[in-house]
Design goal:
The complex is a heterodimer of chains A (436) and B (618). Chain A is mainly alpha-helical and 436 residues long. Chain A folds into three domains: 135 residues, Cytochrome Bc1 Complex, Chain D, domain 2; 66 residues; 127 residues, Cytochrome c-like domain (Cytochrome Bc1 Complex, Chain D, domain 2), CATH 1.10.760. In chain A, α2 packs antiparallel against α6, α12 crosses α15 and α13 packs across α16. Chain B folds into three domains: 61 residues, no CATH class; 293 residues, Cytochrome Bc1 Complex, Chain C, CATH 1.20.810; 197 residues, no CATH class. In chain B, a hairpin with a 2-residue loop joins β8 and β9. In chain B, α5 packs antiparallel against α7 and α8 runs antiparallel to α11. Chain B starts with 8 loop residues before the first helix and ends in an 8-residue tail after the last strand. The chains are: A mainly alpha (436), B alpha+beta (618). At the A-B interface, α1, α9 and α14 of A face α6, α12 and β10 of B.
Chain lengths: 436, 618
Amino acid sequence: MNRLVIESIEGRIIAGITMFVAIMVLIGWVVINEPARMAAFERQHLGRSIERGGELFAANCATCHGATGLGIAERAPALNNPQLFGFDFFNGVNGQIGRLQRQQVELNARITTLNNQRDTLLAEVVGATDERRTAIIEEVNTIDADITALSDQIAEIDERLAPLLEERQRILDAMEPAIDRGYLAGLEQAIATAEAENNPLHLTDFIDRSANRLLQAPWGSDVSSFIRTTLYHGRPGTGDAWNGSLMVAWAQIAGGPLRGDQIDDLVNFIVNWDRGNQWTLEDLYAVQQFTKLKADAAMVVAGPAVQTIGAESGNNLDVATELVMALTGDPARGQALYEGTVRSASNNRLACSSCHMGGAQAPATNEKWNTFLNVRLQLPEFAGWSPEKYFIHGVIYPNEYVVPGYASGVMPGNYITQLSAQDLADMLAYVRSYAE
Amino acid sequence: MSLLPFPSFLDDVRDKGLKKAIFEGIDETVERLTAGMNVGDIRSALRGDPMRKPDPRLRPHADGFWLHMRPGYFHKDMTGVYPTFRLGWLSTYFVVFETITGVLLMFWYTPSPDIAYGNMLNILSNVPLGQFVRDLHRLGAEAMVLIVALHMMRTWVTGSYKKPRQFTWFTGVILLVITGLLSFTGYLLPWDQLALWAVTIGASMAEATPVIGEQVNLIVRGAPELGANGLLRFYLAHVLLLPIFLFIFTGVHYYKVIIHGHSLPPRLENIGEDTAKRVPLDKRVYFIPDIWTNEIMWVGVTTFIMVVLCVWFYHAPLENHADPLVTPLGTTAPWYFLWIQGALKLGDKFFWGILFPTLAIGVLAVMPYLDVTKSRRYAHRRVSLSIAMALVSFTTILSYMGLPEFAVATSAETEILHEMTMEPAHNHVGPMRTVPFNQAVAGAYTTAQLGAPDPRAAVESFTAQLRAAPFFEVVDGVLITRTEFDALTNRIVTVDHAPAMPSSFRPVPDDAPELLKILREFNAKIMANQDELPNAWGAIIINDIQGNLKRVDMVISWDSVQIEMGQVVRDAQGEPIFEFARDASGEVILDQNGNPVIARRFYTRHFYLHADSAYFRH
């Protein structure tokens, strides 16, 4: 072994050259395959990013936005939501209506101009020479012919509009369950305004804008950046629309808990809900909560006049308790009220479950009847109270007693003016059903 | 006459003719560039012709910069594989190799926790040959640690550290330490979980320094925990500080080789003699051309091997983004520091983490000054060679002890579900992640179906049993009694935030054989831990989340037994002692016959599975 491995210098030179050529060939082969490999890596990495995003969503976001991203009534809007991705359920029909209505607006404007010209000419007739009068009449006749032609065009457009409007109405009717949950919020108002101002385009534009979250916001960039910005910085100023529950800043750089790469994962996960052109009305119905815009006083519609528990009881807890106890409660409706799927007597959605679930924001209410009996009513301040009275007290005077460990003043104090005795009886029946 | 004030090429042309002037010009240039060999000399050297006197092949070594670091000729008995095994040469090869690949990577890297990991992804997804160069650098780093250590062992075995090469050995030990530190500092730079936690463990020794532990820790990590400052420090140490020392000591190390020559195989010399510098004429192998061509050839061969390995057999790991809040189970230091991690398990952090490694390396460094025996012959060095072998064995055993398998007690349920669901790390991935996406069919599956003649009946009776069995849990100071099924649903949905729990279990569909296989594997792991997990069942619950994303929840439920130090506590008869269900006031709950009810427990883990994430078993 005490020799060079390849003894002859020619052998070494040939071996060395062979090796270098082989290296170049191998690297060349790697280079040829690089684009495919890089693309595969990107796909794989996006997949894993979405996985981590799903995990982060379940841990941080699901409590408010729902485990399946469909939103929770009165708590937070859906993200698994065609509105967020701007899917057009009208399949272009509303857009076509808009174009035609815009043409009509233009034609009407031209008719107005012609009418004005006509009025000016006719004003000249008095005191004009015969020659001039003939000329004027001739001109007016021409204008009349033009106006008739334009009116014909408008009528023709009306004819083309009719089936489109019908189609749009059909789609709007089909959307009813979603509209009831807040989709196209303000639609009734927009219809009223359009009628009052005789401006059908107002409604068309409203629908265009409201069906797409980015136009509604309005947001000047794409959906990923909309989500990312919201995650980074939260949504200041929307607390009053959401009963005080706030979208906080989630990014570390904005004072939140998540790193930039985790925000990326979340964005990738949320955007992965986009079904492209595969969204269906069923998906729209599944949405539990749509975006709520900041309360606009002009858009608040007065609900029916109801006898609320506050008014009926004269703001007296014992009277209220007696009133409620005299009624028979329906636990199913109580649960629906609790979850926000039906409205209270005053036409409000309560959605108690938004906060009273899991015990994170507010004490969990399920399985708590026994807690009332065994824990709370043992406290000196509730000596001699019935659990029913404790429950009603907790709903209509929420901040007089706050369970230790929870912040005071969080639960809205206006249920006394929103609930009827029957509402309370139903809810009581629901909560009591846990005792069995 | 020249137009210029000094003789020009044109003068030469006029005096000698064009051809001669050109050839002489080239000849002269080559002689200057090679510091002493003209074209004719190079040609003669390559052909093996007799050289003119004085031998021009030695002049580049005497007068040139590059070759003054290399001997003009080698002893014939030093040019083969034995006795050097080319390990010293390979070490230097890797210094150059790592420098080149490292500089290429530096173009794409920023040492900041905010973007370092993004840079890694970019290198892997957007930089042509990025992954390849990263693989080369990482593999080269690991190889270099190994090669340098082997080089040291070889020097020990052949006794080459003995007089006059004591100081060469000393600088070699310094180079060994620098190599380890280089590899270690580089480990952190990808800023993934593997990097953060391996380095956190490695750096935790700093705290154990007596008196100034806190200060040392702050200096090393830049803050109490590794963060932006720590990453920057490790980066600067990796690309600047340590390479500077590496190059300086490599220079000293090489210079000493020139001064003392390569030590000959022990049998060729009389005891106590060192004849390396007196190479007889017939034993000389000149650097030019033999060693030189040989080394270039070896550069080709070694690089080729590295390229082949990185194209087909090795890819540098990259785990998830570093997260200081999530410690992965089974974290270890880099393999070359495992021996310290193993030693730490023996006891005191200061003694085993600081004193022991320092002493070990210190004794190694001064060994030539302690072992002053003259003979380098193997037969005369039985004690020394035995110590060397003992050292290798001891390090291997300590390294084994550094593995998480050794003396780290993790409860069986944690271990099983971690094994089943773990993210890819250390070339291993949880088998449940490798289920083909289309076989991860939504539903709830249970190990109860396995081994039953009719899986459907078995699963139905299992569901019925869960719906009947009471489950006691104290939540918020209130005892909640419900069925085991409801408790499971509550656990999965309310606590773990799964979207839903199916209303009943179902057998694994026939077209999901991989899922069934993994359910079997899961069951086997539970069965292997029956001591700790008596009457256990496992469940896999799969939910559809998005069109291409599923969620997998895995559950183990078992009768709770008392465990101390990872061992089941047994009574005098050798029966395990069960834990009993208790109410809010801590009283044991009794069944209708007045017997205490054994506490049932759940352990869950979950992960998300995307159609494109392409997990596969290594």
